[in-house]
Amino acid sequence: MTAAESPPFAQKPVSSASLESLFRELFPGRRFLVASNREPYEHLWSEEVGEVRVRMPPGGLTSALDPLLQALGGTWVAWGSGEADASVVDDSDSVRVPPDDPRYTLRRIWLTHHDIHRYYLGFSNQFLWPLCHLRPDLTRIRARYWERYRKVNRRFAEAIVDDVRGESAAVWFQDYHLALAPAYVRERRPDLTLAHFWHIPWPPVDIFRLAPHAERLLHGLMANDLVGFQLPTFCDNFLRCAQALTNAEIDWRERSVTSGGHTCHVRALPISIDIDAFRAAASGPTAEAQMERLRQRYLPGGGLVGIGVDRLDYSKGIPEKFKALEFLWERYPEFRERVTFVQVAVPSRTDIEAYDDLTQKVDRQTREINDRFGTDRWRPIHLIKQSLPADRLAVLYRLADFCIVSSLQDGMNLVAKEYVASQVDCRGLLLLSRFTGAAEEMSDATLINPYDPEQMAVDIRDALVLPAERKVEMMNTLQGSLSTIFDWMADVFCEWGGVTQARVRPARLADEGLEDDEEIVA
Questions:
Q1: Residue 238 is part of a domain; what is its CATH number?
Q2: In a domain, 517, yes or no
Q3: What sign results for the dihedral spanned by CA atoms 124, 130, 134, 140?
Q4: Which end of the chain is least crowded, N or C, by CB within 10 Å?
């Protein structure tokens, strides 16, 4: 397959414009608000005195939601993390974005040093993150973390209520940083429709019950009309937690939970990526030249290049991946000087001890493997410890003959989808941990168990010697399984709109003094 041909993606992606029409249809008369920890734009001081520059922080979700907010208008509430953010806001801590053609409002929440340490690094990332990734041994339970998490969530809720004021609105919360905020908003504005997408795994009840404030967290999320998870398993785990740890009523047939007269619906809504953006970057006019330069840098003598792209996080299984590669070169010497692995490892949460320990371990493994197997003309592992822009990643993905995603536990893992979308030549192989949400959708990937690095080495060897025709066949199937980020948002809107209309309709009929059949006659 040539770069000019189109891969067999499952559906033609919808656009931001069609999502706008869908939203207007499903949520008539309502404003749209997004609430997330990360902001879509940061204002930073440039090297020139007094000058401010703007950048979009890396992240697939923020880059996908930004065009939607531009089409719909509304407000995005987020932590103002840029060093010059406070210099550009108005009296309500808001600024219109994008800067060149303002289309919506970015409302910023200010976090102090203690907020960052206790709400973000503390409760969010030293308690909820390891707990949800099945690492209770790494959790840190501190009363001050919980209190600050609660206060910051209330601050988000107050900003949302203030921004909406007397208007009707649909508020979409993102991820584990804001588990309590929906309940705080519901207290003040029960008429608003609220949804939440939980991007990371939801653990089984025997793990989640370790949380001292498990019931409060559950009630915070149950205040939504809709909670979305990546997988049906996570939905079931959430409902079982609600059943075991609260007095809520569970309807397993409807996948809903009712508490205090309010019903929250729970749905599996697996997220995806902007396929067109990765495909365009991988097949751009300079892509071939960039690939040739990269080949000369990483494997000038020819052979196969592998790729891994991960945050430096213990859930991603980087040490396990490196151990499997060590077994590969040790037990199958024919792959020495023929296979080079490029690992992009993005530093993350460097103020947390577990992450510092992981970084040191990955550095040590890289040195030991390169010292053991490397030669004057070949380095087994190239470790890139920085974030790369999406267009550069897409070229690396296209260059790579294989990609290893070795997560020990992952809600989805979009790297797997980015690699497949960037494979415009359809010659690459995806080795995918069976403990990722992506494994449920991408059945033609080579599934691996990162807890068994010896068998992983065998799986890598077997994959590398597959006939070219089989590799093309597998990649075609993988590309056919991909949906787009816009399809995902359309699915969220449809599910959310359906449950919102089901909730609002009885209240409206009661206000009008009508029964259901009377409205039909009217």
A1: 3.40.50.2000
A2: no
A3: negative
A4: C
Q: Identify whether residues 408 and 493 lie together within a single domain.
A: no
Say yes or no: 331 and 449 in one domain.
yes
Strand pairing category for 262-268 and 256-259: antiparallel
Answer for the pair 39, 81: CB distance below 8 angstroms, yes or no. Answer: yes
Whether residue 239 is found in the same domain as residue 295: no
Q: What is the pLDDT along the chain (522 residues), one digit of tens a residue?
A: 443 344 444 444 467 778 889 999 999 999 999 999 999 999 999 877 678 999 988 776 787 788 888 988 999 999 999 999 999 999 999 999 999 999 999 999 999 999 999 999 999 999 999 999 999 999 999 999 999 999 999 999 999 999 999 899 999 999 999 999 999 999 999 999 999 999 999 999 999 999 999 999 999 999 999 999 999 999 999 999 999 999 999 999 999 999 999 999 999 999 998 899 999 999 999 999 999 999 999 988 889 999 999 999 999 999 999 999 999 999 999 999 999 999 999 999 989 999 999 999 999 999 999 999 999 999 999 999 999 989 999 999 999 999 999 999 999 999 999 999 999 999 999 999 999 999 999 988 999 999 999 999 999 999 999 999 999 999 999 999 999 888 999 999 999 999 998 876 655 544 555 554 443 332
- Residues 208, 214: contact at Cβ < 8 Å? yes
- Nearest-angstrom CA–CA distance, 75 and 94: 9
Residue numbers of the domain that contains 41: 16-272+487-512
